[in-house]
Amino acid sequence: MLEPLDDLPAGVIGFRAVGELHTSDYRDVLGPAIDQVVAEGGDVRIVLVFEKFDGVSGGAAWQDLKLGLDHLTRWKRIALVTDVDWMIHLVSLFGWMTPGDMRHFPLAERAQAVTWAAG
Question: What Pfam families does its record include (predicted)?
């Protein structure tokens, strides 16, 4: 499940992942937030917080890929905030393949992640 983050600067959206991610998280939460940013003429600057990771359904994985491609040129910055080892390694290996700039921040540096995403 994705929970919206509060107190983010203008132009930055953010979510905290809780439990397993499902298709509905992308369709009903993340997708509409990104669509709104794009409709308002902005670039996508997003902070994603994963304190732990319980997995993703097959449908959610497809929605993730589709969401990235739908607004390919509008992604500006993705700040991944996590201490989950495999996610950190994934970003270091494949972060260059994501649209826009992607950067990892430890959980203790969440505020810096927000500042970077807003920059």
Answer: SpoIIAA-like
Asked whether the beta carbons of 15 and 30 are under 8 A apart, the reply is yes
The CATH number that applies at residue 100 is 3.30.750
CA–CA distance, 89 with 27 (Å, rounded to integer): 27
- Split at pLDDT 50, 70, 90, the class of 119 is very high
As for how many domains the chain has, the answer is 1
- Residues of the domain holding 71: 2-118
Q: Hey, is 57 helix, strand or coil?
A: coil
Q: What does pTM read for this prediction?
A: 0.89
**pLDDT tens string 49-108:** 999 988 777 777 667 767 666 767 788 999 999 999 988 887 887 777 777 899 999 999
Residue 70 CA to residue 9 CA, distance in Å, equals 24
Distance CA 69, CA 92 (A): 21
Q: How many CB atoms lie within 10 A of CB 80?
A: 21
